Amino acid sequence: xxxxxxxxxxxxxxxxxxxxxxxxxxxxxxxxxxxxxxxxxxxxxxxxxxxxxxxxxxxxxxxxxxxxxxxxxxxxxxxxxxxxxxxxxxxxxxxxxxxxxxxxxxxxxxxxxxxxxxxxxxxxxxxxxxxxxxxxxxxxxxxxxxxxxxxxxxxxxxxxxxxxxxxxxxxxxxxxxxxxxxxxxxxxxxxxxxxxxxxxxxxxxxxxxxxxxxxxxxxxxxxxxxxxxxxxxxxxxxxxxxxxxxxxxxxxxxxxxxxxxxxxxxxxxxxxxxxxxxxxxxxxxxxxxxxxxxxxxxxxxxxxxxxxxxxxxxxxxxxxxxxxxxxxxxxxxxxxxxxxxxxxxxxxxxxxxxxxxxxxxxxxxxxxxxxxxxxxxxxxxxxxxxxxxxxxxxxxxxxxxxxxxxxxxxxxxxxxxxxxxxxxxxxxxxxxxxxxxxxxxxxxxxxxxxxxxxxxxxxxxxxxxxxxxx
Length: 470
Ligand SMILES: Cc1cc2nc3c(=O)[nH]c(=O)nc-3n(C[C@H](O)[C@H](O)[C@H](O)COP(=O)(O)OP(=O)(O)OC[C@H]3O[C@@H](n4cnc5c(N)ncnc54)[C@H](O)[C@@H]3O)c2cc1C
What we know:
alpha+beta, Alpha-Beta Plaits, 4 domains, 16 helices, 20% strand, binds flavin-adenine dinucleotide
């Protein structure tokens, strides 16, 4: 990168918040996907005006930019693909306002999700989207990936809570989409367009969110079965009988085994073939009714063990089993990959059958868990040998083709990023792809915004340097 670009960035943010030091470039070169590529420079703006000035510099000099929140992306969406500027939004981390009358919050993009959740809950309010990474990930990142999480079945995903955005486009223009109103029917919905755009259309600098009253009480169950079918059936029976849990988290036998081996003091049966965490919430009287219906349905499903908790400490102990999953699987192999397929709920059993076929055919151990209520499964290929590595691509290819064949989606919440971009045409047809390309060009004519993400081929980039795919 030319020295004059560095000098211009320094003039915008001062020497403390721009760096081309190797240690800062390395720290900004990867995300949770473990893909890696060095940027030229890292800049940490504190205001929308600074973001705008940085993008003007980038646009005028045909320099790529990579917005970055907490880098918990598991698809490589925060990884630079070639030279350019990482724009780290973590210093824009103010909760600007919580408005109890309107049930809204205004936040900057670098606010950590759990910080907003805690702040809202301290005022009797509730921000329901709850990615398992909530303690680390940012609201800007959640918007750019349209993050889901553990409570979507009842409360929806990030998109259901974002009512207005401020964003900076590639040329430095500052736009405002939506209003701080609960209803809005004015032209095209640019807010929704930015949701899930993975930093390819603009940088989100201001966020207005809808909050709801905090549910008064909750109760949590962990139910274990000999195999998978009764867990899947139970989830459908609950919904069919009018019970809408706020969480329905599934773990298959391999996931339960991993957690048991990782943390031996968990109270779990030795030979369980599946586990289902069910959480209900509501007003006490309503919860009592939901509980008795739920327990009757659970008893009829012949579990090998059921645990139930009402108070926070006991509830946390049940969630600890689910939350130990990610470290437990990493302790088996740090080369594991995690897919994020989403299916209509009645296609969960068929896809679990497909996964067994894939596991036997390609000889890669698979552990599957996920948000069963949303039909969203995280399929972990536990790659640990060169033979596994060689078979990974055909295995993933077969999985995605089966998912699309069953009417499902390539991603429920993690997005496409780098790791899934080549599979995009499996789901998105040529006409829809052309429309998406036109939208991209309208927002970012030079293609400087997070190039290489989402789309299988780089489009409209005048930068003549080769793309370095990590
Ligand atoms: C252990 C673990 C558990 C997880 N659990 C879940 C889960 O339950 N549900 C779920 O949905 N995801 C989950 N994730 C994935 C990840 O946490 C989410 O994708 C999250 O939304 C990323 O937020 P971030 O702040 O880390 O963003 P980053 O990883 O830094 O960036 C993600 C994308 O957002 C863009 N971006 C970041 N900030 C902005 C901005 N201000 N404007 C424009 N673009 C921006 C980046 O360019 C990139 O494309 C998990 C990840 C891990 C490691």
